[in-house]
Amino acid sequence: MAIGKAIGGYLLVGLLCVPFVYSNNANGYRSDGAARNVGQALSGGLLFWPSYLFSFEPEIDGDSVEDFGNSFRDMLEYRNTKWFAGSSDSGRRSENRRMMEKSLAACVLAFDTDKRIVDEKGAWGSVQNGTEPYFKALEKKVMDHFDDEDFAGFVAKGLECVKKL
Q1: Which of 110, 98, 123, 124 is nearest to 26 (CA)?
Q2: Which domain holds residue 96?
Q3: What is the largest CA-CA distance in the chain?
Q4: Deepest in the core among 9, 74, 87, 103, taking most CB within 10 A?
Q5: pTM of the model
Q6: Closest to 87 (Cα-Cα) out of 43, 31, 46
Q7: What are the pLDDT tens digits along the chain (165 aa)?
Q8: Domains held by the chain: number
Q9: End-to-end CA distance of the chain
């Protein structure tokens, strides 16, 4: 009887975590169907809630180019090690990377008022390799835009930029 109550309590706490797991994983923005995204949040929330509840997701640090790159990498590594984020699913891991890269590229293109960058692929690399003050200002603007965002916030900021294009 005590084991049943413990399991029930564990699942109840997990059920309470489901909306947070859904939001934190940016499931509302994913290309998978709604049923799969809700199912992933249910399994992540019900079963792996301690992994979610007792960890702190890294945030983007936009203070310098090096810090930005390191925090971008740290965020991806964090998501690739957490069960609630779908770490056991290679498709989910590559989708996390793709979502972040597309968000970054969208903001580069949205903030590029002179339209010097024409291709989404390599947009951030083009900004980093640019030596003119224009590119340094663009780089700073993009880093400031994403500063202090977690994964879901990063993706949401990217979608704001997509709407500006």
Answers
A1: 98
A2: 2-164
A3: 70
A4: 103
A5: 0.81
A6: 43
A7: 799 999 999 999 988 888 888 787 776 677 777 787 778 778 777 888 887 788 788 999 999 999 999 999 999 998 888 776 666 677 778 888 999 999 999 999 999 999 999 888 889 999 999 999 999 999 999 999 999 999 999 999 999 999 998
A8: 1
A9: 59
Q: Tokens 């990063």 identify what position?
A: 154
Tokens of 154: 């990063």
Please provide the DSSP assignment of the chain as one string: -HHHHHHHHHHHHHHHHHHHHHHHTTGGG-SS-HHHHHHHHHHHHHHHHHHHHT--------SSHHHHHHHHHHHHHHHTT-GGGTTT-HHHHHHHHHHHHHHHHHHHHHH-TT-----STTHHHHHHH--SHHHHHHHHHHHHHHTT--HHHHHHHHHHHHHH-
